[in-house]
Amino acid sequence: MISLIFYFSGTGNSLYVAKKISEIQGERLISVAGEMERKDTVFEYEFSEKELLGFVFPVYAWGPPRIVIDFISKLRVSGGKPYVFSVCTCGDDEGYATRMLQKAFAKAGLSLDSAFTVIMPNTYIIGFDVDSKDVASEKLRRAEEKLQTINTVISDRERGVFDLIPGRLSGLKSAIVNPLFNRFGRSTKRFYATGECTGCGTCATVCPLHTITIKGKPVWGKSCTQCLACIHRCPVRAIQYGKATVRKGRYVHPDII
Ligand SMILES: Cc1cc2nc3c(=O)[nH]c(=O)nc-3n(C[C@H](O)[C@H](O)[C@H](O)COP(=O)(O)O)c2cc1C
Ligand code: SF4
Ligand code: SF4
């Protein structure tokens, strides 16, 4: 029996969700970024009938992170038909992120049986700020309730539950803003470390794409998902993105170190 949850997470929200599901369902957690490091041309997994295949990921500009779509394009599933589900986490609304995932699945010969959106504290400090403490705790409390429902649906292998939060103008956001974000919004050019940097190397360790090297201070390579783990996880707040993040808060899921 293999039941697998593939996850991607920058600041811990999606990792927390993936862990809470895997604890109940007994699924093995697999990092999409970790798998993609192998540079294999295909990733093959064999399932038995009704075993679980789950994807948990954050929403970036109303779509799934590009690395998740790239991974699915290399995914090959053999054996019986697994029960396929997805959970996306977002600060407010997902747009059509799940539809975009569904399209990628269709190309891999798979389809979602059920899918969910879970609202979590916001991490996009380039455009907005982090949530206030009260808003963040309320989101985390509600997420706990939603996770219980999600686990029940998955345990029962219920089909056709699409408990999603697309928000307003979802089609427009996903069809227009998302491609622009992927084309122009993922540059590393505006990242820099201030004089407070101690050279501790945390940013390089937490970068899921291993794009950061430490030469006294961090130096960014080209590939980037904009997960913002480097900015949020720097212990001395030394990383900025142009001027956009200077006066903004920082956030990491409280249960994820
Ligand atoms: C680059 C970027 C883009 C984001 N875009 C959206 C968005 O379109 N809609 C939304 O509700 N939240 C958005 N967010 C917030 C995250 O989806 C949310 O905080 C998520 O739970 C972070 O998950 P993680 O901690 O697993 O990385 C964005 C965050 C980042 C870093
Ligand atoms: S995490 Fe912060 S302090 Fe540590 S090397 Fe990176 S920028 Fe410097
Ligand atoms: S450079 Fe920073 S934002 Fe880009 S992938 Fe690495 S940790 Fe995420």
Q: Helices, strands, pairings?
A:
Layout lengths: L3 E4 L5 H13 L2 E4 H5 L6 E5 L4 E7 L7 H8 L1 E5 L3 E8 L6 H11 L6 E6 L13 H23 L5 E3 L6 H15 L6 E3 L8 H5 L5 E4 L1 E4 L8 H5 L5 E3 L16
Parallel strand pairs: 1-2, 1-4, 3-5, 4-6, 6-7, 7-8
Antiparallel strand pairs: 9-12, 10-11
Helix pairs in contact: 1-5
Walkthrough of the structure:
The protein is of the alpha/beta class and about 260 residues long. It contains 8 helices and 12 strands. The strands form 4 sheets. A 6-stranded parallel sheet has the order 2-1-4-6-7-8. Strands 3-5 form a two-stranded parallel sheet. A two-stranded antiparallel sheet has the order 9-12. A hairpin with a 1-residue loop joins strand 10 (about 210-215) and strand 11 (about 215-220). Helix 1 runs parallel beside helix 5. Bound molecules: flavin mononucleotide and iron/sulfur cluster (2 copies). The site of one iron/sulfur cluster has 15 residues, from helix 8.
Brief overview:
The chain has 2 domains: 4-180, Rossmann fold; 191-241, 2-Layer Sandwich (Alpha-Beta Plaits).
